[in-house]
Amino acid sequence: MDETSCDYIKAVLEKYSDMLRRICYLYLKNPADVDDVFQETFLALLQHGKSFESPEHEKAWLIRVAINKCKDVMKCFWYRKTEPIDGIELAFETRAENELMQLVLELPSKYKDVIYLFYYEEYAVPEIASMLGRKENTIYSQLYRARGILKEKIGSKDYEYVF
């Protein structure tokens, strides 16, 4: 590995590491599995060898690879036979943000993906549709349903979030 590719990987790692770890945690909820998938994602970047059209294309590619690798782990026999560790605190600034993320984590995967990409990574619906290989109208429907589920869960709490 030459100096420039090493610098490139360091820059990408600095720029996207937090986002990719959060995405992996959304799926796996196990820090050890998150670390494994995180490393595999960057190994895939090293092996990719092609340049990206833009930083957004690079980011979308990394997200797609991380999600696919998380799904591969979830298909594994050993993963299905283990229980996630409860009580791990996510690193958010306020208690309310932390509780909201816990509610998002409880959503079915198809809703969790779109909520995370839309609200936390601030992707537009067409971009999410392209990343997840779904139709735009499907993404709109899933956002609507996910918001409904979250509002219902939040309604039983003492505070309110704005969606």
UniProtKB/TrEMBL annotation:
Keyword 4Fe-4S: no
UniProt keyword list: Sigma factor, Transcription, Transcription regulation
An MF annotation (GO) of this entry: sigma factor activity
Domain RNA polymerase sigma-70 region: 14-73
Keyword check for Signal: no
InterPro entries hit by this protein: RNA_pol_sigma-70-like, RNA_pol_sigma-70_dom, RNA_pol_sigma70_r2, RNA_pol_sigma70_r4_t2, RNA_pol_sigma_r2, RNA_pol_sigma_r3/r4-like, WH-like_DNA-bd_sf
Example GO BP: DNA-templated transcription initiation
SUPFAM superfamilies: Sigma2 domain of RNA polymerase sigma factors, Sigma3 and sigma4 domains of RNA polymerase sigma factors
Domain of life of the native organism: Bacteria
Pfam families reported for this sequence: Sigma70_r2, Sigma70_r4_2
Domain RNA polymerase sigma factor 70 region 4 type: 98-147
Family the entry assigns: Belongs to the sigma-70 factor family. ECF subfamily.
NCBIfam families reported in the protein's UniProt record: sigma70-ECF
Protein name: RNA polymerase sigma-70 factor, ECF subfamily
